[in-house]
Amino acid sequence: MAFRPEGRWPCFPSVLTKSFAYLHSRSVALSSCPECREEISDTAWNCPHCGWHKSWAGLVAAWIVAIAVIGLAVLFYWQIKQADEAHAKFRKELDKSEAMIKALKPYS
Questions:
Q1: What is the rounded CA–CA span in Å between residue 8 and residue 107?
Q2: Cβ(10)–Cβ(4) under 8 Å?
Q3: Would the CA dihedral through 41, 42, 45, 46 be positive or negative?
């Protein structure tokens, strides 16, 4: 194995190395701290200026809402499926009774 000055593995493709380098070098969005109004990174959990800590409450609430929406969508789908099955059963019985009426019509 030859030593590479870039520090990459010989079997590691340079395309992947460049994409990893891009991911690590991209800029981070800044937002203002709700306590001291200084700019902090969006990925930071604590403000380096005042020590304010992001709470989990917003994240937990977002997950609860997402799970509730998914649950309602599944429930809605299940209700529609049940209604379609009931309609198909009703239609089958209706067709059967119409066939019986047609069969009895000549005798009336």
A1: 92
A2: yes
A3: positive
**How much is the CA Rg of the chain, to the nearest whole Å?**
32
- Taking the C-alpha atoms of residue 31 and residue 93, their distance in angstroms, rounded to an integer, is 64
- Dist CA 54 CA 43 (whole Å): 10
pLDDT band at 17, cuts 50/70/90?
Answer: low
pLDDT digits (tens, 9 = 90+) for 46-104: 888 898 887 776 778 889 999 999 999 999 999 999 999 999 999 999 999 999 888 88
- First vs last Cα of the chain: how many Å apart? 98
What pTM value is reported for the model? 0.42
Q: Are 33 and 50 a contacting pair, CB within 8 Å?
A: yes
Q: Any bridge partners for residue 32, and if so which?
A: 39
